[in-house]
Amino acid sequence: FDSKLPNVGTTIFTIMSKMATDYGAINLSQGFPGFSCDPHLLDLVYKFMNEGKNQYAPMSGIPVLREILTEKTKKVHGVDYDSESEVTIVSGATDAIFSAITAVVKPGDEVILLEPAYDSYAPGIILAGGIPVFVPLDIPDFSVNWQRVKAATTEKTRLIMVNTPHNPSGYMWTQDDLNQLAALIQEREIYVISDEVYEHITFDGRVHLSLMTHPILKERTFVCGSFGKTFHVTGWKIGFCFAPAELTKEFRKVHQFVTFSTATPLQYALAEYLEEQNHYLELPHFYQKKRDLFCEGLKGTDFQFTPAQGSFFQQVYYGHLSQESDFDLAVRLTQKIGVASIPISVFFNNKDDHKILRFCFAKEDQVLEKAISILQKSK
Ligand code: PMP
Ligand code: GLN
């Protein structure tokens, strides 16, 4: 078969999670919480299912959820959007990212990706006929190298993909990053997709700077988010996309033929839940305790690391210990030692091996303690 995606195989998340199950390893690979959401949120889903909210939702999302989300965004970021024409409820951030790419990228357009980049970006760009242009982030802190970004920008550049807080490194964009990007796109017709699924998982008092907070960026950006990350329900596959009306119009043209709409009872439940309380405000504290527990334990291993700024991932460097590839080490740790992780070479187009593994610390404390004890003993 003449594949449209010849270089794409099964995602590393599927591979490592399966390997963890097959070998009985603690699964710190694929990013998902090892604990359940607030039982009240489940009660709300049940309530709305019982009330008969079981048929197609409106294509753009139920109005009450769009309204409450728009109010929350105003409260958190101080930014105004029109809930009718500038926000769309989608089936996970993956849907938002794919639909936004498809809406913007024409055959031959170049799209700048900052590597390491989340695995769903490049396939979406290639399917749209676009050309991914890979620009490496600066190691070791994974900050943006603006000279390199500028050098990679051409008349064909149509889109730049942003991810803050960043998966896998946890790097969070600064005001200077926002300003640099604004200056760059102001000169040309370049659009931005900002993947902000970890917007509420930030540490050490850092504030997430959404691209929507910059007036120039707001006009050109699709800001994508995920309720899965914020409410510990990654399996629900429900998220959102904020964009100016003109861009939302194009976005919806695609979204309506990708999924048409998103699970109705989940939308009602999330709307009521968001109306009732501010669960998301507790996330920095909740996840920082887990990050600190994990990092404290890592001190008893030979890995080198800098605590993550945001997201629920912690990277570790092992290049001073071994020349084994990160993929081989991740496989060996899973099969022989009993802890699964993600080799970050998978987030690079050329599978660059920086001898770094990514661990997900969104797990019960006792699971993290057990993983740490295994890693400490295996050094
Ligand atoms: N972007 C990033 C950076 C992610 O880590 C993930 C994964 N969970 C997604 C997008 C996809 O989010 P969703 O599950 O809501 O589709
Ligand atoms: N975003 C999750 C991660 O980075 C994985 C989601 C998926 O399996 N597609 O681990």
What do these coordinates show?
The strands form three sheets. Strands 2-8-7-6-5-3-4 form a seven-stranded mixed sheet, with helices on both faces. It contains 14 helices and twelve strands. It folds into two domains: 116 residues, Aspartate Aminotransferase, domain 1, CATH 3.90.1150.10; 239 residues, Type I PLP-dependent aspartate aminotransferase-like (Major domain) (Aspartate Aminotransferase, domain 2), CATH 3.40.640. Helix 7 links the parallel strand 5 and strand 6. The chain is α/β, with parallel strands linked by helices and 379 residues long. It binds 4'-deoxy-4'-aminopyridoxal-5'-phosphate and glutamine. Glutamine (GLN) binds next to loops. Its cofactor is pyridoxal 5'-phosphate. InterPro entries: Aminotransferase_I/II_large, Kynurenine-oxoglutarate_AT, PyrdxlP-dep_Trfase, PyrdxlP-dep_Trfase_major, PyrdxlP-dep_Trfase_small. Belongs to the class-I pyridoxal-phosphate-dependent aminotransferase family. Pfam families: Aminotran_1_2 (PF00155). Keywords: Aminotransferase, Pyridoxal phosphate, Transferase.
* Order of helix and strand elements from N to C terminus: HEHHEHEHEHEHEHEHEHHHEHEEEH
Mean pLDDT: 97
Distance between the termini: 46 Å
CATH class (first level) name of the largest domain: Alpha Beta
CATH architecture annotation name of the largest domain: 3-Layer(aba) Sandwich
Helical amount? 40-55%
Please identify which CATH superfamily of the largest domain we are dealing with.
Answer: Type I PLP-dependent aspartate aminotransferase-like (Major domain)
| Broad structural category | alpha/beta
